[in-house]
């Protein structure tokens, strides 16, 4: 889930913003170059941004906590467009969700970027690359990206929440509690994310291989 | 067969598209719905098969009240062809798209195959069966969208501008097919802008204007009121304009066939005779004077 | 069923004094309100902001049902904040359940957090629901946000509509050919829908980006904002005054 | 103005859409491109503005070689209207969509406003300016897609079936506009299936058949070869068929105006005279006999 507006104390919100903006800036530089060299990649960029928006808006209730959880979509974008571009797309999706569905927020944008846009993209991408290098098939590697990206995102989010809400308990204790309580929802979600990521990537590879970036797909 | 009663519909965006439409289409009719762009034709057609359900008024199709609940049942009896083929076709290949409907009807595979071949033949896309649908020209997509509905062999056929962007031969072929199907008992309702085509095939016409029925009835009821026709952004068939040169004509012909009969009749009955003889005299006098 | 259902732009196009305020003024106002909401660290401040925003929503006639939908997400989090604080924070134990103790002072802190979440959520919601994205993007550009970023925002937004439109188109087409008349047919149809959706949106996107290029696509952000007017001045002064009061409240008032 | 030389194009899907097309369109022409569905019209038009670039052959538009690199430059001179308006319009509202092109031309805001109003007026959508584009009927979308291009005031206008799904009044309005623009020096190229419209407005016709030019030339060059026309899945204008009743006619008229002149001429020159007099005699004899 995205952290809503108002949950984080001011200093924590600011602390998450700094690295988030660094990643976003780096991503924008790369994306700008990509769009200049390859104007025809615009539709894919827009489409993936929209897909992340839609995917990370499918709510599933988390038992016991009264909050909701959802898949991320950033691992898939990272496979198709690279982790830095996926970071930008994830950030944009988060901003639009905050504006139109109050899902996430403006001051918590930085924290959410770090967990979903950066964490999901890079962890997912790394899992994909490692799996490919280990000789796993395209579908399975994409699935791995989905699982890992999803779980890492939730690990980070739980940590951020624990940091903000640990009260008088220790951070690791609350973090563990939060992570554990997400687990019953998160495991099925991670599997769903894996199936989904694998499905889309394989489908595209079969139907329109030319839209895949060859360099990214190599084992 | 179709009965629309006091139908009103306002789009969520705000446009009042239907403003009290009532219409009765008996079984076996061939009805053309005409009207300016934005007059509500598509909106009306979507109510007939239940894609939209009215905020006021009622629609009955093939003996069933059209409701959200009866949607499946109604669509078993009715075939609906969308205005934009890109809205309608979705399966990966032409073949899959044509077979989609028959399969959902639960037909056995050999019957599905028969219908596939027949429908592809009817719109002349037999040689495209294995093409992915995004590798078709626009007119080919239009043909496919019609085939997919024909293959379901519905009792009522509702078509939203089926002839737009078909080539003239495809247009004639389709209209003849509709004519034959209609002869065989199928009720056909089509929205169209082609004024020249309507009198050739349709037997009833309904004119919409700003979400209301301006006039509905036989061909003559509609085409004799020229002023109304122009207010609805339509015109007479081109052939009619030719016969404006004979100001004494009671009724302008609407089709080439009618025009031909008219001309022949004029010649037979000598209506033209005096004119011709006068002209001949003038010409002769002119020649003599020169 | 209709392409327009479920998007907030319907409201944003509507004419209310809120949607007519210059988006640059709104951005500054929202930034200010969110900052005091967090930094104020006072439930009075948050309560004042929440009341002010609720008032705006009523005055701006933002559709009632949508209001509820919009605060659904922050609301679940607000509940979460209350329970978690009651468990994790404080010393004043009022009840125990197994290994968990419930603290009264933690509970109050949770209430404060909940209030802050609701207030912040409302601020963002009012911004989102009364500002067409296009104007927001123009304002972002005015504030020197990177062009690529704004372009991606616009691209993403447009493709959201395309996904929604293609989805409803395909779904309608499938329904009218009985694709959802039974469980089996529905399964097959949903698979076809899922598989084709991506490609269809992509194809359509390709064609419309071609169309954009034909008409000289350079910058996606296209258009200009008219200079701020009297309404913007009034809005600016009102919000500044409010923020001023809140700061005083935060400095002097109870924490 | 436009020069196509030995153009070939095969789609990635596999269909050979153009198979050696050569065509010359002088400045100030009004050219209609016709042909069956799938004959390659849209593919050819997309080469003229550079949306597709040929695998063999060359295209020159407005003095520029059409290449991937010259795309922007070529599209400053040329306006292109897509076959499906849903592919073409994209801005949030009607107003934004019309202004999009002029703004990208870097025009000052008051000039953009002037063009907005003019273009909206020209296709009669002035009352829709503030509508979101997904709240339009199909024909309204088509009008908008044309307005967006008109507002750029290009030197060459390339339109892919601009009149499909316009109502008859909209069609006439648009064609008159194109006619006037053409008179004012604009080169107009349009693909169309409307055989009755072409002779009214176009001065040159190019017939495509399976990716090749079957014939290109003046109206008469094309319409006098009936066999070829039918092989290209076209037909004669309806009015021509009426005049088949006069088998001695040298050339069939193609438009109502031509038909009218023809009839008048027949009457003046007495060609019809003998027939009429014969008929009259027969009738009189019949009456006398009764
Ligand atoms: N995107 C595509 N991919 C593959 N093949 C295509 C594609 N578009 C068109 N074709 C094929 O290329 C040929 C020419 O298509 P084109 O669209 O140029 O025809 P057209 O003359 O415009 O037809 P219509 O009258 O139906 O618009 C057709 O056989 C068509 O099936
Ligand atoms: N999805 C929509 N949302 C809002 N308004 C719509 C929508 N579709 C159509 N309208 C409006 O409703 C009215 C009727 O539209 P409809 O599509 O029924 O017209 P039509 O007669 O089919 O026109 P056309 O000849 O252009 O196809 C028009 O004013 C149109 O702008
Ligand atoms: Mg319509
Ligand atoms: Mg075409």
Short description:
The complex is a heterotetramer, with one copy of chain A (219 residues), two copies of chain B (290 residues) and one copy of chain C (255 residues). Chain A is mostly helical and 219 residues long.
Counting structural domains of chain B, the number is 2
Overall average residue pLDDT of chain B: 90
Low-confidence stretches of chain B: none
Strand order of the largest sheet of chain B: 6-7-8-3-9-10
CATH hierarchy: architecture of chain A: Orthogonal Bundle
CATH secondary-structure class of chain A:
Mainly Alpha
Major beta-sheet overview of chain B? 6 strands, mixed
Radius of gyration of chain B: 23 Å
Shape of chain A: globular
Considering DSSP H and I runs of 4 or more, what fraction of the residues of chain A is helical? over 70%
Write the CATH architecture name of the largest domain in chain B: 3-Layer(aba) Sandwich
Sheet/helix structural class of chain B: alpha/beta
Task: Could you tell me the CATH topology label of the largest domain in chain B.
Answer: Rossmann fold
Which structural class do the helices and strands of chain A define? mainly alpha
CATH superfamily of the largest domain in chain B: P-loop containing nucleotide triphosphate hydrolases
Radius of gyration of chain A equals: 17 Å
> Helix count of chain A, per DSSP?
8
Descriptive account of the structure:
The complex is a heterotetramer, with 1 copy of chain A (219 residues), 2 copies of chain B (290 residues) and 1 copy of chain C (255 residues). By secondary structure, chain A is mainly alpha-helical. Chain A has 8 helices and 2 strands. Chain A has a two-stranded antiparallel sheet with strand order 1-2. The longest helix of chain A has 37 residues, at 171-207. Chain B folds into 2 domains: 2-235, 3-Layer(aba) Sandwich (Rossmann fold), CATH 3.40.50.300; 243-289, no CATH class. In chain B, the strands form 2 sheets. In chain B, strands 6-7-8-3-9-10 form a 6-stranded mixed sheet, with helices on both faces. Chain B has a 4-stranded antiparallel sheet with strand order 2-1-4-5, with helices on one face. Chain B has 290 residues and is an alpha/beta fold. Chain B is 43% helix and 21% strand. In chain B, a hairpin with a 2-residue loop joins β9 (204-209) and β10. Chain B has 13 helices and 10 strands. With 255 residues, chain C is mostly helical. Chain C has 2 domains: 2-143 and 226-252, no CATH class; 147-214, no CATH class. Chain C has a two-stranded antiparallel ribbon. In chain C, a hairpin with a 2-residue loop joins β1 and β2. The longest helix of chain C has 32 residues, at 183-214. Chain C is flat. The complex binds adenosine-5'-triphosphate (2 copies) and magnesium ion (2 copies).
